[in-house]
Amino acid sequence: MRISVLGPLEVERDGCPLAVGGGRLRALLACLALEAGKPVSTGRLVDALWEDELPADQVHALQSLVSRLRRALGDGALVAPAPGGYRLDVDPDAVDALRFERLVEDRALDDALALWRGPALADVLDYRFAQAAAARLDDLRVTAQADRIDVELARGHGDRLVAELEALAAAHPLHERIAAQLIRSLYAAGRQADALAAYERVRTLLSEEMGVPPSPELQQAHMAVLNAETTTPGGRSNLPAPVTSFVGREREIAQIGELLERGRLVTLLGPGGAGKTRLARESTARRVDEVADGVWLVELAPVTAEVEIVPAVLGALGLREAVLGDRATLGVRDGLERLLDVLAAREAILVLDNCEHLIAPVAELVDRLLRACPRLRIVATSREALAIDGESLVAVAPLAPDPAVELFADRASAAREGFVVDAAAREICRRLDGLPLALELAAARLRTMTASELAERLDDRFRLLTGGSRTALPRHRTLRAVVDWSWDLLDEHERTLARRLAVFSAGATVESASAVLGEDALDGLAALAERSLLQVVPGSRPTRYRMLETIREYGLEKLHEAGELQATRDAHAAYFAGLVARAEPQLRRADQRRWFELLQDERENVIAALRHLGDAGDARRAVKLAVDLLWYWLLSGSQEEALAWLTFALAVPGEADPDDRAIAESVRALDGFDEIADEAEVRAAFAEIDARILRIDDGARPLVALAKVVLAIFAEEPEREAEARRCALAHPDPWVRAGVHLLLAGTAENQGDVETMGVELAHAHGDFEALGDGWGVAMAQFIDSGRLQVAGDLERAETALERARAALEQLSPETAAGMLDLRVAEIRLRRGDLAGAREFADRARSRRDLGTDETAFALATLARIDWLSGDVESARRELADARERLDRRGPIMPRQRHGEAVVEGLRAAIAAEDGDLETADRLLAGAYDAALGTTDMPVIAAVAVAGACVAARRGDSETAAALLSAAAAVRGAEDPTNPEILRLGIAAAPPVSREAALAYLSERLSRPAPVSP
């Protein structure tokens, strides 16, 4: 976990950014972060967050805010209770402000100052605690800057510090130490008049605003200028002074520095436009005065022939006049020998820029120089390695998102006054891959169009991004020229490979590239990666090679020009359709995780293949691919995407396999059931689906075999259901047999048959475990947690949920996470851990993948927590929210009224507690009517318990006991840990049969007012 407050608040967990929304929530995190690892009292937090407008219930308001923060951080343990308050349980070094203070104390000033991204606590400065903390941190920052500047001045680097010190002096006009440093720096830069003017300016301010004379330090700096005591720095270089700011790359600069300490040749590798030249200049400029004979830049881009390389180096060193302080003229000796003679005993750094078009002769020269000149070090920039002994490589990748946006904003501000970063600007940075040159060309375009207009036109980026600096090299003036330069360095076979690889939107592996290209692509992929046309995806297994989007767009143009686009896309679609067909059965076997991760990695390629099949009018293969993806979409929790692509495939004109089309149409029709409220219409639609599926031979289609059992259960025809079960349990695929047991366990749960549920779950769990299907094991564990819960074994129930979650997270963390959180919340509630229950219920409610009913269940759980903790008003609000959501859904089938039954039952119990028994009876009758429609026995039992609460409030303990007995009968278990039952403190009446229980419930709960038995 990393928390950054030296600038706008940012939170990272495992390298991924976390969103913390809301001003007060961000303020809470900032307040805790500034004391990371230490307790912060409740009173201090309340005062900090609410200041002069304290909430009525301060403790509850803070608890609620802490719960929200835990959800946002994704780890409830991070914000831990502490004596009298709370503690952010992270290492102080994980908070940049605390790390900054430690680094300043350790005198690691550069590292400390590099942590700042803008004004401290920038987005919570409305709070007084933040203002005070920011002021303290800003003071420490200025002191650290001044300390660092003293070091640089002592090294003779004053002339480089003028711009920084002028900005500091403008921000702190009365800071005498900074003023003294500015005076020394201006004089070191040869600006004596400006130095004297700077002194006079601060002297006047001190006199007029504070009535004090300049400090001795300031007067000493002034006298040094007058007496010419300050000396200019040594060191020599031909590096050009920068005219624009340098953004990011601190990690690379540090890496280059470390490599130059350990070795003598560092080559910066990266694609065109990535900023290799600027990085080489910036990293070596910092070392000019650390090497006795300076740093020398050799521009090789204009050099077109091997014989021109040595003269270019000699020219950069100024050998016609003076070479590193040694005056000599070129005589008759060979230029290389002269170069070796001069550099043999010199300590210097050569920067050889743009080596790629002369890679072999440059490599030979560098090898010669390093062997003959032991104190010489070389930094080279190229799109491929020199490949000689002693070479260290630094990959110069495109900028990460935040530095890319910072660079774009800086350049855009110069082109368009008042520019503000928005979503369009971030989209531009993303689509341009964070390439610095592309971002600078795009920023220049803002002189004539808005960021939104620019983002909309990026599909035509090569025509759009022109007009770079007139003084830049020709290949840096347009985006096309940048890529042309790299493309022209390839041989014909490499160009063919590169343009064909452009169809891989998610990158390619050796296997996929070889299949599409029709040849072994290993050597070609390696060659393109070495030339920076491909990027190796870090940590990928198998190794994946990606093209930057800009290069891919260029490659697609070339593919079209070569007349190969259609054929290459056909081969690409054929491979990935085949890959999905191979993967589909493996998603239900021991290699499930490996194949699932492979499909996750290839997701963009698979979608591109499906879209191409549709665009090409290949209905047969398009529908088949969409159907083959169904199980993958389910495992990844992407049902909406499954429906979208099924709809796309079904819209492709032409003949498709009848079975594939029947499956696709049936799945799409099932999704439409939510919009049908009329039972007759539902039956008619169901009959159509039933007829389609029954015609399909399920021997090689496990999902169809299971679908037939589900359809038979839905049809409510006992003989047909029994036959469907028999056939499925005899199916040759063991996964189908395991799936049937899982279905039967779920059916038994709905029917209140706990014993059968346990038997079927044991079969399902064992069969799925034998197959190695983690998803199936997780589903069995999830359902079993419900059985264990009503049996009162809460510890084993929660363990089952933990195992289910662990298994699902191996595939997709999103899959069923909301329902898992709800089940954990229920168990914590039954254990009396109301805070833990609220945390998980809150987390479930905040998930976007929950449907209306699941959201209603989450709100109902929160309402129960509030009710049981005595906060009836909050419980009413949660239930009102749930009721409103259910109403917005519109008419639905009776089988779908689970959420309504639970919510109305709870509303009835709370109304009774308020003494409004008439309303309670009305709500209870509606809840029972909804519960009966679901035919779900546990839901009916929940309403019966609500009825017992109403009866008990009326003083009718005999009816309450009878209702509890009926609830146990329909549920199939006593449910000894149910908090509502425990709260009543009423023993259930003697057991009755399920039939008798249902009859009794209908008699007692369907009418407005229960009567005594």
Describe the protein's architecture and organization.
- By secondary structure, the protein is mostly helical.
- It has eight domains: 2-133, Winged helix-like DNA-binding domain superfamily/Winged helix DNA-binding domain (Arc Repressor Mutant, subunit A), CATH 1.10.10.10; 155-226, Serine Threonine Protein Phosphatase 5, Tetratricopeptide repeat (Alpha Horseshoe), CATH 1.25.40; 250-395, Rossmann fold; 401-485; 579-656, no CATH class; 657-721, no CATH class; 733-815, Serine Threonine Protein Phosphatase 5, Tetratricopeptide repeat, CATH 1.25.40; 835-1005, Serine Threonine Protein Phosphatase 5, Tetratricopeptide repeat.
- The longest helix is centred in the first third of the chain and has 27 residues, at 128-154.
- The two termini are 61 Å apart.
- The model is unreliable at 228-235, 320-333, 468-476 and 1009-1013 (pLDDT under 50).
Q: How much of the sequence is in beta strands?
A: 5-15%
CATH architecture designation of the largest domain: Alpha Horseshoe
Distance between the termini: 61 Å
Oligomerization state: single chain
Number of strands: 15
Supply the CATH superfamily name of the largest domain.
Answer: Tetratricopeptide repeat domain
The radius of gyration over CA amounts to: 36 Å
Shape: flat
* Biggest beta sheet summary: 5 strands, parallel
What ranges have pLDDT less than 50 throughout 5 or more consecutive residues? Answer: 228-235, 320-333, 468-476, 1009-1013
- The number of distinct structural domains comes to 8
| Protein structure class | mainly alpha
CATH level-1 class of the largest domain: Mainly Alpha
